[in-house]
Amino acid sequence: MQLKIFIALTFSLFTQTTVAGETREKLILDQYPSDTPWQEVTNKFNGDQWLREQIPSDQKIETHKDILTAQSFPQQKTTEPSSFLKGMFSRVSEACDHVRVNGPKEQQEGGYTVAYAQIYCGKQKGADFGVNMFFKAIKGSDALYVVQREFRVPQSEISGVTSFTKDQMEQMLSLIKGQSVANGYLVKSVYLCGELSTDKRCETHQVH
Predict the structure, then answer these.
(1) Residue 172 exposed, middle or buried by CB count within 10 Å (0-12, 13-18, 19+)
(2) CB 71 within 8 Å of CB 92
(3) Counting CB atoms within 10 angstroms of each CB, which of 64, 113, 150, 208 has the fewest?
(4) What DSSP designation does 49 have?
(5) What are 72's strand-pairing partners?
(6) In terms of DSSP H, where are the helices of the chain?
(7) Residue 190 has pLDDT above 60, yes or no
(8) In angstroms, rounded to a whole number, what is the distance separating the alpha carbons of residues 51 and 77?
(9) For all residues of the chain together, what is the average pLDDT?
């Protein structure tokens, strides 16, 4: 079972990407902050539901260590973001050994209910690595939107703890920095524009 649990969106190489199944509501994602450009590897639509993925351009989808994904769930538009993320916790537990979770933490942003959560998978079953996942879910009028930043990390037998050897110090520091960037990105650079929005940034996006 692959641990890209549901989610996926693209942010190509433009300053911003807008995604919407309906023109009255748009999910906005600023360009992901990175020295290496990110490229789209998945772009799928099924009616109002869409799924997209992006990885750094110097990685391959078969062996990627980093991925940024997002997905719309129109069938879940009445579901509270925190409830949706809690449901994901059990699915991750089925795919992982040694799991720790933070959240979900629910709050109001820009006129919408959002929730944040982190999931730390010590070891993905059937693989030789662990996975750290950072989520933001937004409850819109048309759909529930979920954005995920995922890191593949060295496997660990301790929930929520990633172990590095002495010669992996650079990798450890890179992960710490990357997770800090991911948290900031989800909070500041992922937002929804629609009829309920109070975010002034949405004034530049046409929403009907």
Answers:
(1) middle
(2) no
(3) 208
(4) E
(5) 145
(6) 81-95, 169-189
(7) yes
(8) 16
(9) 81
